[in-house]
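Let's practice the habit of predicting before peeking. Look at the sequence and jot down your guess about where helices and strands might fall. Then scroll down.
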Amino acid sequence: MAKGAEMQSSSTEETSSTMVEIASQMQHLARSAEALAANVDQTSASIQEMSATLTQTAENGEVLIGAVEEASATLGTMIDNVGAIAARIHQVDQVSQQSVVETRGNGERLQESISSIGQRSDEIGKIVKVIEGIADQTNLLALNAAIEAARAGEAGKGFAVVADEVRRLAERSVSATQEIGTVIETVQKDTKRAVTLIEHVLAGIVESISKTSGLVAEAATAADEQAADAREVLATVGRMSALARQIAGSISENATGAQEISAAAQKMNQLTHQMSEAVVEQKHGGEMVVKAVEAIAVVSRQNLVAVEQMNGAAKSLAGESDALRQRVALLQV
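Done guessing? Here is the structure:
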């Protein structure tokens, strides 16, 4: 009986020690579960925030795509306008070059006409000089005739009158030819001045048109370069639009994945809290079991003490019984 009590007490002590260790492990597990629940809460909040951020980013991506497409359309319109301007500038350049050619041709023809007028004026001047020479000779002849008529006396009076009229006509002819010569000289001078002025003005006009043509050509080149740059920018914008669409698609996929992750995290959060609550309950249950085992251990120790006391009493009774038998034996002798 004592041996059984000792075994029971030893087993109870071992069970109590084991339950204490289990209780300690349950406490550690409870703390770990609480920490896990806190981490899961934080992770869930971070995932929800990331999901919201990705959703907002996806919306911003759509806005960006709209802005890029609008910029692309604007650039397309600008390229069309620049192309139209370049075409008009090329037309203006062609007109300017044609104007230079026509202006030079008209100026040359005008110079030829004025030169022709000058040549005719020279010819008229030569004719006037011939007429002037003839008038001088006529005047001399009239003077000689008047002298001869004076010598003839009364018979030469009629001839003297005719000679005098011829002389007057010759003088008027000389005077007229002198006036014509003066006019011709003036015309010749004016013609030369006009030719010089026309040459100067024509050179200025041609130079101005040439400069204008050069500026127009530069403007046409600049317009072509601007159109080329705009087309390159449009191509870049197109690549940006495609890349933005790709990024928006990836962001949308990530946002969808993040929402799924967020739902899974929330579910995990619930399971973690349930596990934490179960661990806490297990902890309380373990503490109660430990207390019960400790109570059993106390009772076992008390039983062991009682058994030991009973053993002592039994031994004492056995000794007294032996002494009693010995006394009885002595009495029988």
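How did you do? The longest helix spans residues 157-332.
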